[in-house]
Amino acid sequence: MSARFDIADTPLDGLRLLRRRPIGDQRGYLERLFCADELAGLAPDIAIAQINHTHTASRGTVRGMHFQYPPHAETKFVTCLRGEVFDVAVDLRRDSPTFLHWHGERLSGTNHCTLVIPQGFAHGFQTLTDDCEMLYFHSTVYQPEAEGGLQPQDPRLAIDWPLAITGLSGRDTSHPLLDDAFTWIAL
């Protein structure tokens, strides 16, 4: 436990949930989204290389499941600033006991949680409300040539999306289903 965060393990090794502890009064609150000193144990030597902000207009939309291959594998700190999402990580690490297992957490603009997704995981989310805004802190800069993706509706993953999927990009739909030719991530 740190001064500004409660840190909880998930069933997938290395995947953690941060509960931020806002400090507030009648005017509102201040909360720390990231602190290298306080979170050093989660991702040693992490440096934030890129910060991305997304807006998704419609409830039921799925974005993902994205990852980057080494040497550009990344750690992500994912926060929902507005609305509510079901945020999912899939373990793609070759020698992991939870290989191809997924875990989901509800993140919202009001629950003050961040999912910390380590290298070797794919990430995606489904919007549970309209007008969701997400903030991502990435440990590496996006490299198009290192990009990988999983089909969010792959039966081998069997992700239990809370809602019927009402929106999915052509890019995310085009990811192939998992087969024995998939190059697993070796870190």
* Main β sheet profile: 6 strands, antiparallel
- SSE succession: EEEEEEEEEEEEEEH
Give the overall shape, derived from the CA principal axes. globular
Based on secondary structure, the structural category is: mainly beta
The percentage of residues in β strands lies in 35-45%
Give a quick rundown of the structure.
This protein has one helix at 170-173, and strands at 5-9, 16-20, 23-25, 28-30, 50-56, 61-68, 76-82, 84-91, 102-108, 113-117, 121-127, 132-138, 147-149, 167-168. With 187 residues, it is mainly beta.
Report on the structure:
- The protein is mainly β and 187 residues long.
- It has a single domain (6-21, 43-173), classed as Jelly Rolls, CATH 2.60.120.
- Helix content is 2%, strand content 41%.
- It has one helix spanning 170-173; strands at residues 5-9, 16-20, 23-25, 28-30, 50-56, 61-68, 76-82, 84-91, 102-108, 113-117, 121-127, 132-138, 147-149, 167-168.
- Strands 1-2-10-7-12-5 form a six-stranded antiparallel sheet, with no helix packed on it. Strands 6, 8, 9, 11, 13 and 14 form a six-stranded mixed sheet that branches. Strands 3-4 form a two-stranded antiparallel sheet.
- A hairpin with a 6-residue loop joins strand 1 (5-9) and strand 2 (16-20).
- The protein is globular.
- The two termini are 28 Å apart.
- The mean pLDDT is 93.
